[in-house]
Task: structure prediction
Amino acid sequence: MNAPITIQTPIRHPGPPPAETEVVVIGGGVIGVMTAWHLAEKGIRVVLCEKGRIAGEQSSRNWGWIRQQGRDFAELPIMMESMSIWQSLSQKLGPSLGFRQEGVMYLARTQDEMMGFEAWMTQARGMGLDVKLQSEMQVYDRLKGATVQWVGGLFTASDARAEPWVAVPMLALAAAEKGAVLVEDCAVRGVDLQGGRVTGVFTEKGRIGCEQVVVAGGAWSSLLLRSVGVKIPQLSVLASVAQTAPMPEIFAGNAADDRFAFRRRDDGGYTLAPGARHDFFLGPDAFRHFGAFLPVLKKDFKSTTFHARAPKDYPDAWSTPRKWSMDEISPFERIRVLNPEPNLKALSQVQDNFAKAFPDLGRPTLTRTWAGMIDTIPDVVPVVDRVAAIPGLVIATGMCGHGFGIGPGTGRVVADLVAGHALGHDLERFRLSRFTDGSKWEPGPTL
Result:
């Protein structure tokens, strides 16, 4: 069983990059792709550089959920806009995008969980979301053949799903058609600063002069930003995922509890994942940011498998350089596509839990397993901001596993941030300075 992408995946956007543009976007995940899309739509010359392949890392390895439900309330307005953009994209690009509004169901095993669902629902409904509590009977009416394990649930009918490895490359091709220049196999080694402001980037294929740079590098963002003196408390956790063989439909949307999560796939199978479990590799940044992540660590300690060291050349591996010159191979070229090994033990437990919940289906057969590295921030919300100390530098990272669904809306916001236009949303919660201005961090919901 193999991960969905390897370095042998054909290059669709070979370049070469131009010597000059207005904006360079670093990172070919959904945030970078949609930022480039919206910049090109505004008539702004933009080059997107991806060290490996478009959507090669977390943007193709996620669950495929497009959810408003359970969002931080500062994210929710952007996510609601994003849902509208997804609808428009589906109309333009057709059914192959895989976009389906079949709903998201959260499942509760205890009344305490139901109380948490109700508290979140009350505020979300006030913001216009079509979210509803589900009684035990309503849950089992929706989930065909489920055994009695849950006391109720939370359901948002307008939430959706799509096929990540299909959708993001399609969006990249559409961005290129709008005029964005995308270049795969082109690592950005560093940002060129003159007089303290952005004047370009150094890539392995030469320098690109530009006025602004957007860092949307996912798990690699912190390492790149540190090279220009910008420090953010970002770490990465490993999330394991699996694909099943075709199975009878039990629910057309997405559902999860604390033991497993699933999404109906267009191929007739399901995408399965642990509901809350993940793996974490200890490294220099883990110790550097230990205090910042301590509240989250205490909460998730039992659901986290710790490893003493990351594999060689991972972003926070002990041996990964933190400094390098612009004329030598950088850490971003040593691993073109971050392709971690999944936790097969955790996925086996998911198979067991799924079989207990849906005994008529039996233990699902897995046809493929993979894992991705999720870029995380201590308060579980991203950084979307200009770097005040470096004119021309913009950050859009730390999506905390929420990036696929919110990508189209976040890309629009980042593009307007770059262009100096009205944003339409309050980004105060996502500001970079929250890590240094002495303010108290309020963790987002973990529904």
Summary: The two ends are 30 Å apart (CA to CA). The domain at 23-103+158-435 is CATH 3.50.50.60 (FAD/NAD(P)-binding domain). The chain is about 30% helix and 25% strand. The first strand starts at residue 23 and ends at 26.
